[in-house]
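Incident log, structure service

09:12 report received: a user says their structure output differs between two submissions of the same chain.
09:20 pulled the input from the user's history:
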Amino acid sequence: MYFVWIMVIAVSAVLLTFLCPSAEAEPAVRAVDFESREIYRSEEHPSYTCWAQLFPGERGQWYLAFDERTRSEEPLAKPTRQWWYEMGQPAGYESSQYRCWVVVLESTDSMGSWQMVARTESASPGDPVTSRKPMARTKDEGFLAGCWASYAYDPAVKAKANEVLYQSSDNCHTWKKLPPLHDPHFISYPYHVRALHDGVLVLICPLSPPWGPGTSRPTRISVNLDAVNEMQMALFFSHDQGRTWQGPLPIFPGQTVSETDFVELPSGNLLFFNNSIFATPGRQFVYRHGDTFTPGPMEKVRSGTVPETVVLTKEGILVGCMRAGAYYWSDDLGLNWHPLEGAPNTRPHRLRRPLWRRRPGTGRR
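09:34 re-ran on a clean worker, output below:
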């Protein structure tokens, strides 16, 4: 997950046309009626939005959640020198002097229009832990969100770095912290949470060793030279709307991966993608049998660029996007990828994570 220094939230819609091969070697898949639309702009200047995420509701509605950062008129507390040393972040990541608002928009007309559900200011401006990432709507009409507690300015919060999930029952105005997600020997980076067709929640959450006093790693960027890989991509599953979780289930063995996306196949199995920003692009099936999920082997991509965000159409075509707006498609479940004709290959000053809208009945997301 990445900060995107933008002032505009945009929504993209891609309708696909499937073409027959011809002597002129026409592409088998082409995007038609490509649309880019501005749906939110901060009223404050300067400002930017980041960490945007689109997710469905329980009755056909859609939600768009993101952080809005604005300048503070008065100086705010800065992180300590020790925090900067332990984090090992470049100066450009400094955000302590920005006010942080968590914004949630709702659409009840298939993304034709959007209404604000909540715009709440963080009690600790600038603190990375205040961001609500990722976020999902649950079947009981609540919201589930994660945070990166290990990045907190407050040492007391960082000391409980496995407490990373929150629930809201009042449209994101207040949040209740949930019990620890995982073993305290690790810190985690909740990346994405999504509901399957039957309401089971899947949380994508890589795990890493902790750092700082009392650990074997003085800083976040310290490396254990004896380890094959220290960060492990993992999945957690909830069958009760986020109250309890099963996991972790490791995937992408031997790979250092902090982000992934997946589609739910008609069979109920899940297909995960190790995208091309990482060293070994490829795919991995996670097979479902009732409430049990079992990972298959990771397979390397044969050709093309594996995108970061992927959807599955009713025709069985995968369509995905890389940051800056390069689009790709695959008709063999991600073994080979091809550039998507008819869609622009770059979209400056727009949202990195594409927000896909499909015709009704185009398959599971």
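09:41 both user submissions now match this output. Likely a transient worker issue. Closing.
09:42 reviewer note: Confidence is low (pLDDT under 50) at residues 1-11, 348-365. The longest helix spans residues 81-87.
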